[in-house]
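Chapter summary example.
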Amino acid sequence: MTTKKILDIGCGPNKTPGAIGIDLHAYDEVDVVTDLNKTPWPLAAASFDRIICAQVVEHIDDPLLFFREVHRVGAQGCLVELTTPHFSSACSYDDPTHQRHLSAHWCKPLLADGYLSAQIGCYELVSTGVTFGKSLRCFIPRLMIKLKGLPWWEKHYAFTYPAMDVRTVLRVVR
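The structure predicted for these 174 residues follows.
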């Protein structure tokens, strides 16, 4: 039985147990120190079965290069788990190093029928959604999404009932 190789991109001091951690900063947990904005990363092609990328993509200079590189190091069928602040979250705007503010459907151009897939490699959408806080008030947008759908809530009520994060899972397709 082969073990699945996990890559934790931008792991910082909180690397996922059992993963290879890659980061710009040389924390004790980081295995590969490199600038994620410069490609290729010092990692073998098609070598990971799972890639975790939490609170990183909003900091990247060129998302096309970044996702081309994620596609390169991910094996066929690799699950890519991304978390980023939702555009309606105050957290999206309170860090001056954030370069973009993303919706729950930010990844559409990367999918098979998306206009960027030919340039960076193809991904398949496994799931996407938003997270909310724990207050009773957060029940309202959850109900709206359940009844009317995520795109409807984003268009009409995202800034009235803001989310916290976008969580997206993609699959590498070769």
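To summarize the output: The longest strand covers residues 74-85.
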